[in-house]
Amino acid sequence: MGERVLNCLWCSGLSFSQQSATFVQAIQCFQAKIGLSNESSLRLFGKLGYVETSRSSIFNEATLQLQVSGEVKLYLDKQADTLRLSKYSVP
After folding, report:
1. Do the beta carbons of residue 1 and residue 27 sit within 8 Å?
2. How many distinct structural domains can be found in the chain?
3. Which backbone phi and psi does 90 adopt, to 5 degrees?
4. CB of 33 within 8 A of CB of 24?
5. Quick check: is 87 in a domain?
6. Does the predicted model carry a pTM greater than 0.85?
7. pLDDT tens, position by position, 7-20
8. DSSP string covering 38-89, please?
9. Which pLDDT tens digit goes with each residue over 12-63?
């Protein structure tokens, strides 16, 4: 889905700065999946404001989410001009 959104933005005729701002405005939450044995990362993400939304005993991992609102939204809006959108590829 993310690549589809980026392709729509690139074809929209918007400047890069406008594309970055539009992309940032579309973000509603960040999600992380962390192994239950990785207690350091679970604590770190908790301190960053992430909340555990589910736990899988099958995959032995927790799903944490950070809702993008309030201070997080303001921070991302301020940073939109400094973002660089690029395609991710595995070497």
Report:
1. no
2. 1
3. -85, 125
4. no
5. no
6. no
7. 444 444 444 455 55
8. -HHHHHHHHHTT-EEEEEETTTTEEEEEEE--HHHHHHHHHHGGG-------
9. 444 445 555 566 667 788 899 999 999 999 999 999 999 999 999 999 999 9
